[in-house]
Amino acid sequence: MPVQELIQAMDPGVPRSVQKVARGLKYRDFITVGVLLKKMKIMNKTKIPTVNNIVPDNWIYIQERDVRLGRLQIFNNWSPYMVNDPEKTVWIGLEYFCNQGDELWSKSDDEFSKFAINELAHIDIIDKDDVMDSIVIRMPKTYPAYFGTYDDFHVIRDFTDAIENLFLIGRNGMHKYNNADHSMLTAMVAVENIINDRKSKNNIWGVNTEEEYHEEK
Fold this sequence. Notes:
single chain, 217 residues, alpha+beta, Polyamine Oxidase, Chain A, domain 2, 2 domains
């Protein structure tokens, strides 16, 4: 649960200083467009073997300045079991970073699908004739931001940590940009604390604070 909404749901009874920090927390929202294709135009030019020789990337960051698309995800490469027919089709996800209520967020699903597919065709990643299906998914508060009142987040933490049976976990619960693995680990640590009757929650907040970049381990 986003900590901003948690504090709102607990009111009345929450100190004004805590309410103020919670109201001032900022987020970045997210829209993904899933597109089912017969094939992609870009080909695998590496020595990495892939099914049907599609590009081996999981993510491709889009650098072209004349499109709004931020990142492309190829679900076949996460696992062929995510695709009904990986021999003949490719599922991709087009990722857009936005804010609720802005121009992108306000488009209808049909408008957004057409817009996203046109962008992908414009940068020569797909041919529109190869599009078989699409779906639009909006996800609010995907990215907790480290501005707004974030510098005073300790005010919220001090208040919530004092509630013995309340555990803030995950990306939104802790307002912390953890990946999925670290988010799940915070939940596991919270369960261990409950089992062992550990009162301090410092070990939960300590997840993903090491200086070494974990993907390089």
